Every structure is written in structure tokens, then in C-alpha cells.
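OP here, attaching both records as promised.
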Amino acid sequence: MAGKAIQSQEGTEGCLTRPEGKAATSSCGLALAIIWTLSRALGPAKESIYALESPKGYIVLGCWEPKRKFQMKAFRFAVAVVLFALPLFASDSYENELSSALVNHILVLRNYYTDARLTFDSNGKLTSKGTPGFGPSDGRVYVRQVQLEPGKLTLISARPLDVFDQDTQEWQFVPTATTISIELSLPADEAANAAVSRLISAVFLKKSELAAVQCSAAERQEFLEDLRMRMNHSSPVAKPKLPDATNLADVHPYCLPGGDRAYRLGRGIKPPHAKYTPDPKYTDAARNAKLQGTTVLLAIVTPEGLPTAISIQRSLGAGRNDKLRPLGYQLDQRAVEAVSQWRFDPAKFQGKPVPVVINVEVNFKLY
């Protein structure tokens, strides 16, 4: 550490130099300040000491020797208590730092895992069951809370849901009630800040990697224009019908808000067929309010016939009064939960399953 040694004057009270400025607010500075205060309270010192002066304050290099033995015992006890508590102060400080960096932010898991609980070892290797998803939307987690414990970091998160805002004509996201817990084991022989940084990069996509899979500006514009026309019930400009493609590489995929890509129907791509479609369940509040209507969803049907990347195109809560709007949003969530359980015979191109984008209208009607 840069700095210079300074010697206190012999016979002065205390033996520690009090941390000043930024150093006084750090966990180390706090500990030194407490010890310094205790040393002055216990009485005058008879020996000189050395300290190291640095830009962040002072670190004690010498020792304090009181004139009476009971002072030494009390001082040693106080130092032991402070040094024991120092790791706890440091842990709390770093946990707050992590919370500022991660809470209320979206991260994307590598392999797009869809499980509700995931555990990783100190090298970032998955140690629990992991179900890879279709695309980036499956791997997204919205961090709600950070828990830093000895040997473990836990991220309590939710799955985000994309919703098209009809007022702003833009996509937004809302956290769902689905909770996901991600536990990262921290090695005992590595500083927590270094280990956490390394593990976050091992478990989640880096910004540069995420940018590579996101929709381009042209893809986003194409998607929004098409969506706005359908939302406004406008007829697209008539275009000559394209013949069936001879190769799937000739078909332009659609890029959804989360970065997932799938094909639109046509050009030789045959539609999927639903074979299991459980109905959504009403909430008690919506039923009591006699709320009815339709939620319009956008989804991808994977080559395995599974719905994924589900988003809300038209909310049942949109345009409602203040009392009914939240009830409509709750039914939107029920619609998403129901459609996520649907099963399909997948879409096909030349007899082979392919991922496609579909619209799903979910009706809520009281009989």
C-alpha cells in the first residue's frame, strides 16, 4: 500500500490514529475507529507506535501499551470483538453492493434453464436438475433479492412476462408470481467479490453474448409494425403471394421481443394443431366483478409441440377502470398459465417439425 510511516509522540493519549474521510465509512475504517475510541477511553499510553498513512486513512502497524494491566485486558477483549465482527460488516457491505447491481435487473441463464430451483458449484457447474429452454426468454430471470451467506450466494428471482402497452405502443415487462431460486457455491479460498464476479459470468450470459442473440433494430421494427397492424385490425399492404420455399434457409424467421426466433406460417410451413387445451381458471375477484373478455397472447410452438416465449399482445385489463384493470391483469396471468400447459402437434416444413409463431385468443366468459 502506498503511503508513509509516521510515529506518534511518546506519552500521548491512545495509540491508534483515527481513520478520516472515506476510510471512516469503510468496514475496516469503522473497526479502526471503534478501537481508536476504546483506546482513548481506557487511558493514556506510555509507548509510541507506528501507523501507515495512505489515501484511504491509516492502518495500525504498532501496538498500544497501557499503564495499567486491567486496561490491557479490556483493550484486548475489545479488539477481539471488533475483529470478529469485521467480516460481518464486510459481508453486509458487499451484499448491499450486490443488491444495487443485481436487484430489479434481468439476467439470462446460460442454456436458458426453465427450472424453479437451480444450484451451481464453485466453478459454475450445474449440480441440480436443469431443463434447457428454447431461447433467451426461457432463461430470463428478474432478480428480486440477493442473499449472501458464508459459502453461498442466492438470487431470489421471478420470471418476467412481456406485455404490449397499447398506450405507448411499446413492449414492457412485468414480473410474474413464479419464483426461481438460484444458488451459487462460493469457494472458501477466494475473495467473495472475485468469486461472485467469476460465477455470475459462468452462470449467466455476458452483455456481449446477450447482444448477439437479441433482435436487430430492423427485426424489432418489422415485428412492431406487423403487431401494430394486427392490434389495430389494419389490413397489411397487399403483397404478391410468395411460392413455397424449397429450403428452410430461404424463409425469414420472426424475432420476438425476448430474442427468440421462429417462423411465420406460409411458404410451405404447415400450422401446428392443438391437442390438449385446458381452460384458464377465473380468479374469485374477477368472477365476483362479473368481468369477461379476451386476452390475446403471442407464443412460439417449438418443434416438440410445446408453447414458449408467451407474451401478452392485448391485455384484458387494458381500457378498464381503476377497479377492473388489476382484475383484468390477473386474468391475463391465468391465460398465460393455461396456455403454457397446452400441447400441440408441431408445425412442419417438408415433413420436419419447425418452430412457429402463433396468436392465441383466450376467452373469459361467465355462463
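Record two, same layout:
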Amino acid sequence: MPRRPSRSSRHRSGISLIEVVASIVLLVTMFMLLLKGWNQHQRQIRQAERRLQAVRLVDEQLVTWYSSVNRPPVDASGVFSGGPPFYWKTRMSSGTDNGLPSSLRLLQLQVYGADHQLVLSTDLAVNLGGPSDGDQPGLKQGSSP
């Protein structure tokens, strides 16, 4: 009678179904993490490009304001000419103790996108009395969301 080999002496080659499934789950998990990181990276790039566009438009608008009326308008709003659809708003900052000379006031300039989300916010030191005694209005400091 032929002798049957015992289970322990039998050698099986190959991989089991559990090993295949575990490998697929691991690969899918790694792919999903990679995809999530890529999407976050792309979103950050789009936000940075949008902010750069807003900064360019603000720079051009400041040149226009200072060359024509010698200061930005106070408590006003408007649309930038050219470029993507951004609009701006200005308002006086409420704080008076800002370390500026008495002739200068802080004017907050905010830039919004077409989706009405704040893209850029900066403070301008504005000479409300016009250019006298050497004080020139200009960009004092900036902050963004």
C-alpha cells in the first residue's frame, strides 16, 4: 500500500489568498495616501497663485492711487481692472495706538475673490492730510489669512 506523505512533510510553493489580499490592501492604502497628498499639494499651489495674482493687482492699484489722488480711498470698495475677478475694500483700522506719527492712519485693504472669500489683507499707513512734512503714504505692514 502506498504511503501518503504527512502534512508536515509536504512542501507547498506559492502564496496564499490571505497574503494576496493583504498585499492588495496595503498597495491601495499607499496609493490613497499618495493621492491625498498630491491633492493637498495642488490646492496649495492654486491658493498661492491666487494670492500672487491678488498681490500684483494690489501693487498696480496702489500705483494708480498714489499717482492720481495721492492716497487710497477710505471706506470704499471697487473692482480691479483686468486680471482675474477680484474686488477690494478699504476701511480705517480702529486702533489708534499703532506707533505711527500722528499724521498717519492705518487703512486696511482687503482683497476678495469672485467667490467672496478673503484672499489678501494688508494694512497701509496713509497720510490723511496729504503729503506734507515729508510723510509719504505707503505700505506699513501686511498680514494675510
